[in-house]
Amino acid sequence: MTRYPTQRLCGGSADVLTSESSSPLLVTMGTFWYKKYDELSVAVKERKSEYVARCKLLGADPNDVFKEVFQELVARAVKESNWQEGLRLSEGKTQAFATAAFQDQPDIRGLRLDTGRILATHRRNITRLVRDARSEEEIGAYNLSLAYFVLPLIASELQSRQTASLAKALLEAYTALQKSPKMPPEADKAIKKGMQVVEELKASQARAMSPLTENVATQGEQFSHLLSEEFSTLVNPMTAKYLHFLHRITLAGLQPPSVCGRYRKTPVNVGLEDVYFPAPSLVPGLTKEYCEWFPSLLSNVTKYDPLLMAARVSYRFVAIHPYGDGNGRVSRLLMNLVLWSFNHPPVYLKADKKGRHRYGWALRKANRGNLEPLACLIAISLEEIYSKLISTVRS
């Protein structure tokens, strides 16, 4: 029988605020690291460039190398994220359940991400784990590993829809300008160049790789289908269904199915005078606003700082606190969704004593409008990960 632990009102991030916010050690530690974002951001760029250059020197595509180590990096991110929530499983066992989660997924191809098929498969796998008397820690590791597995699939769908929105806007602009008797030659040339790119995307024979619903064979066919959709569904593709999807995966077997992927119905109170969460009746509207605000994941056209944006995406989600439990884990998944779109590995925020102190301090600063400390933690983790990856390719 599935065991459901006592539900915490706050979730991981709020628990950190409750337990760590008043520690005097935070002041000492805070002055040491949380104002160093510019320095840390440069270090991340340097380490990443060094790793990419080394891979190329060895005749390997850095993206292919990254995909090969993705599962191992996921296992480390899962371990730290679950430790933040009190689900403490060794790194070796976490790696084993990450491997199982990656191997257990169906191979489906089509037009749209088939969340229903993935969830149905996941429910069957969780039922098997419960029947085998696996612990909450083991189920938590399996769940979160799968959630990281689907992050690139979500990113791919959001990116495809955002790309289609740009193409659709270009097509509409071209149609309108063709009717203008005085279209400048420069504009005509630029638009025709853009139209050539659109035609190349429609003609792409690259295989459609995501688990999808309709039966399409190529990315070009998928792109052509997207162009027929309403512009509003393409330009802001993030919706609550993706948030509920991640929450259902993350909490399967740990909470009753009736609360997985469902907005909370009770208030959240962490007992701190300066920390408030919205009333339950406001959560659906705030979540809708969050999804409409969610940034573009097209790294070649966006201008924002990905580390600061990853911090903002994570924090804004935690501030809404849409679910009764699991908000911290989902917020870190969304953080990594942004980072993945800029070809960064999954971040693991340390769950040891120092890491929890720093995380609590960063969240308190974010409550006051300063997201740099949280971005610093992301940068610290990325710099460490890249340094370790570099150590594996040195002669």
Written description of the protein model:
With 395 residues, the chain is mainly alpha-helical. It has a single domain (12-393), classed as Fido-like domain (Fic-like fold), CATH 1.10.3290.10. Helices cover 65% and strands 0% of the residues. It has 16 helices and no strands. It has helices at 12-20, 25-33, 37-57, 62-84, 91-103, 115-131, 136-178, 185-202, 219-227, 231-235, 240-251, 283-293, 306-320, 327-341, 353-367, 372-393. Helix 4 (62-84) packs across helix 5 and helix 7 (136-178) packs across helix 14. The protein is globular. Residues 1-31 have low confidence and may be disordered.
Topology, please?
Layout: H1 12-20, H2 25-33, H3 37-57, H4 62-84, H5 91-103, H6 115-131, H7 136-178, H8 185-202, H9 219-227, H10 231-235, H11 240-251, H12 283-293, H13 306-320, H14 327-341, H15 353-367, H16 372-393
Features:
single chain; 395 residues; mainly alpha; Fic-like fold; 16 helices; globular; disordered N terminus
Give a short overview.
This protein is mostly helical. It is about 65% helix and about 0% strand.
What string gives the helices and strands in order?
HHHHHHHHHHHHHHHH
| CATH C-level class | Mainly Alpha
Helix segment count? 16
Q: What CATH architecture do you see?
A: Orthogonal Bundle
Q: Would you report the number of β strands?
A: 0
Q: What's the CATH superfamily, by name? A: Fido-like domain
Report the average pLDDT across residues: 85
